[in-house]
Structures are given as structure tokens and as C-alpha cells.
Specification:
By secondary structure, this protein is mainly alpha-helical. Helix content is about 90%, strand content about 0%. It is built from six helices and no strands. Helix 1 runs antiparallel to helix 2 and helix 2 packs antiparallel against helix 4.
């Protein structure tokens, strides 16, 4: 009987940690997406100082979670996002609204994909 109780408790702990992971990744993706969209909008409006500030805050936030994201996310996703951030900053430094906006859209799209992959759905269960 002790083994069954231990197994049930372990299952509950794993389930709770899975939900915590979903919450952390979802929140991170939403916060970074908001900052990246702000950077893209500012670049589109020609306010490159505000665009750079938003892009840097987004990159800093993403890098702050690096120890966690490098464990739970695929390396390819992290690499794509990192590359997108530097393309975004490059477009801002070149004062190219089109390049900055395209890079911002790439980052937001990748973050939406990550958020969707990390969520629970019937397809991921069965």
C-alpha cells in the first residue's frame, strides 16, 4: 500500500511541476512578445531609441530565464529566438523599420509556437 501512495504522490508532484512549467513559459512568452511588439511598433514609427530600449529589455528578460529555458526548451528554438533578437537590434541600429519589423514578427511568431507547444491539449495527451 505504501508503494501505491508514493506513486500517487509522485504523480501529483509531476503534474504540479508540469503546470508550473506551462505557467512560467506562457508568462515569459507573453511578456517578451509584448516588449518585442513594442520595439517593432516604435521602429515602424521611426522612434529607434524607444525601439532599442524595448528590444534590449526583451532580450534581457529572455536571457534572465536562460538557465531555465535551456533545460525545458529545444535548443533550436532558443537559437532561433537569439538570432531573431540580434536581427531586430541590427535593423534598429541600421535605422531600417522594415528589417526591424520583420525580425520582431519572426520573434513573436516563434514565441507563439513555443507557447503552443508547451501547452496541454488532447493531442499532447493521447
Amino acid at each position: 500500500m505504501k508503494k501505491e501512495i508514493f506513486a500517487a504522490l509522485l504523480l501529483l508532484v509531476l503534474l504540479a511541476l508540469s503546470y508550473a512549467n506551462i505557467f512560467v513559459i506562457s508568462t515569459l512568452c507573453e511578456d517578451v512578445s509584448a516588449l518585442v511588439e513594442s520595439a517593432g511598433d516604435a521602429a515602424k514609427a521611426g522612434d529607434f531609441e524607444a525601439a532599442e530600449a524595448s528590444a534590449r529589455r526583451a532580450l534581457e528578460l529572455f536571457e534572465r530565464y536562460a538557465p531555465y529555458t535551456h533545460i525545458v526548451l529545444r535548443h533550436m528554438d532558443i537559437e532561433t529566438l537569439t538570432h531573431g533578437f540580434y536581427e531586430l537590434l541590427g535593423g534598429i541600429y541600421l535605422r531600417s523599420p522594415g528589417d526591424a519589423l520583420a525580425s520582431a514578427q519572426l520573434i513573436v511568431s516563434e514565441l507563439e509556437d513555443i507557447r503552443e507547444m508547451e501547452s496541454i491539449s488532447w493531442g499532447s495527451v493521447f
